[in-house]
Amino acid sequence: MNYLPNIIFAIILVVGIGYFVKNVKKLFRNIKLGKAKDISDNKSQRWKNMAMIALGQSKMVKRPVSGFFHIIVYVGFIIINIEVLEIIIDGLFGTHRIGLSVLPKSLYGFLIGAFEILAALVFVAVTVFWIRRNIIKIKRFFNAEMKGWPKNDGNIILYFEMVLMTLFLVMNATDLAFQNAGTGGNVISQFISPIFGDNPETLNIIERSAWWLHIIGILVFLNYLYFSKHLHILLAFPNTYYAKLTPKGQFPNNEAVTKEVKLMMDPDADPYAAPPESDADETPEKFGASDVQDLSWLNLLNAYSCTECGRCTSECPANLTGKKLSPRKIMMDTRDRLEEVGKNIDANKGTFVDDGKQLLNDYITPEELWACTSCNACVEACPISIDPLNIIMEMRNYLVMEQSAAPMELNSMMTNIENNGAPWPYNQQDRLNWKNE
Amino acid sequence: MSEQLTVPTMAELMAEGKEPDILFWVGSAGSYDDRAKKITKAFVKILNKANVNFAVLGTEESATGDLAKRAGNEFLFQMQAVMNIEVLNAYNIKRIVTCDPHSFNCLKNEYPGLGGNYEVLHHTQFIKELITSGKLDIKNSDYNGKRITFHDPCYLGRANSEYNAPRDVLNTLNATLLEMKRSKSTALCCGAGGAQMFKEPEKGDKDINELRTEDALKTNPEIIATGCPYCMTMMSDGVKVKEKENEIKVMDVAELIASSQGL
């Protein structure tokens, strides 16, 4: 017996999965760089949201065309991956189509038949996506932030899927044993089969090559995820689970501020009292966010989950009227900066060494932040419940409370509120004048 | 104007030993902005007509702090909120109605965390309640068959998922209600939110209110209805930019109801 293929297979499998696990750990570590945020409430509602939005794709279909084709790719990919189980068993134990010998012939035929139909449908759907991106050139795939890597990433994913589906069908088409087994499962591959002639030796070589390339392709694709927007196929699930449940208009109240305000308003507080001893070493809480570590872990999970579809940006009133703000870019910038911080930590043996950069200014400019109308269109549009608005507001908090860097007109508006309880310079005593006008 | 509005203040009621059923939160725009004041008065006319036992805070009211919060000044927001909550709680307020979706959102969602727990209604929700309970009878209106399109305020619609109340109220006018292509959860912002009302827009190729007005004009309306004083400003300006101010009126839902009843 020649065990070489089994050993090679096992090594490829271990390396492929091992490298993926290593990167998943890095992913967790990076997300945990964010501030703590307790989200342990309303478990049943959260499971329900995950089932509806991630598993059930309920927000994808709000745009029917892309939603329809996305569901094909999504369902196809999940179901076809059941076939990977057979491939792994065959690869490790040197069997050939173990399913044929353990499952009833009709059931095996049904399964493979379903996979083949789905593979063909996925191929079609992915082709449609490619056409939308490269021929029809749908506008939202061509915003400023979509140049270079993000554009290539989108296409590479589509090519991967096309190649994997093709290999799966070719593998079946050139497998004489399968074609002649009479399972009825060769619904698509029987039409591809004649292309490859009938020389058993040639067919065997093609079949083996397709089989190996298929499993290697899957492992490479798995490892590609971490470097790609395609991470959403995994992170959409936790992301929809942890998404905000309160009304979209409800922005969280900053508790550190509440403490200070309560102290200020307390008539018994001594304004000249020295701070308690124990607080002397504590750095005062930083208000808002200027870098990724100031954001919550949920903001960072959001950033990794974003698949750059651009539905947010295509509904953003600021972006639609030519302003620089793009909610998708906010998410992409956050992820890029987080990756940069992660690499910095890797290079410096586990600690972050100041690199003179931050999310604010180096990635996201105040001009973008001040263009937001806080209308929640982006949050509503996101098919997996990402909240770009929360990041924008956190960064505005930093600009205003740490740097006093609001636009001048807003500073006058806020001074008016402080002085006379209205955004305009009118006397509070005139508040009821309308009654007699 | 000389028509008599009955607008009791909390202080007056307290002095008489009375309590209102509901507090009308006028808001800064409703108190000082000339156009928004007309909405305030129209709503008071409705309250008077329906004999609602209400009151206002008058000079004891102060900005909710919503604008400061959206502009990034959480500190100023909380100062305003804590001061207002002290006043509201001292008067034992349970129920609040306001014509401003921003105040509505802030009072309803952001005050509870700071000790202010009230049932808060947008005026379109309250008018709907008055109509359903029979306290306000909508007789035949001048708006029979008029083409009206409703612009959803972000802080009523997306922010708080209230899309029906303003439409239900408008439907009592027997008008032809037209929906813009972007409406309800996909409605486009008027451009005023997030404190934009108080600053110049960033560089772009168009103003947001102009784009939103184009959305509205595509329905070929006679009236653009709103439920927010800031949307009112933005949409009115948009209609002027498009030089349609002689053909198309921008009106608040409360104004439509009040004027339909000859109030």
From TrEMBL, chain B:
Ranges of residues in domain Cysteine-rich: 32-102, 148-235
Biological source species: Lacinutrix venerupis
Protein name, entry field: CoB--CoM heterodisulfide reductase
One GO MF term attached to the UniProt entry: metal ion binding
Keywords on record: 4Fe-4S, Iron, Iron-sulfur, Metal-binding, Oxidoreductase
Gene Ontology CC annotations of this record: plasma membrane
